[in-house]
Amino acid sequence: MIGRSIALGRRAGVLSVVGNAIGMIPAVLAVALGVGALVSSSIVAFTVIKIIGAAYLVWLGVQAIRNRNAHISAEAPQPASALKLLTQGFIVGSTNPKTIAFFVAVLPQFVSPTAGPAWSQLLELGVCFLLLALIFDATWALTAGAARDWFARSPKRISGMSATGGAMMIGLGGVLALSGAKS
Question: PANTHER family, per this entry (predicted)?
Answer without folding.
Answer: ARGININE EXPORTER PROTEIN ARGO, ARGININE EXPORTER PROTEIN ARGO-RELATED
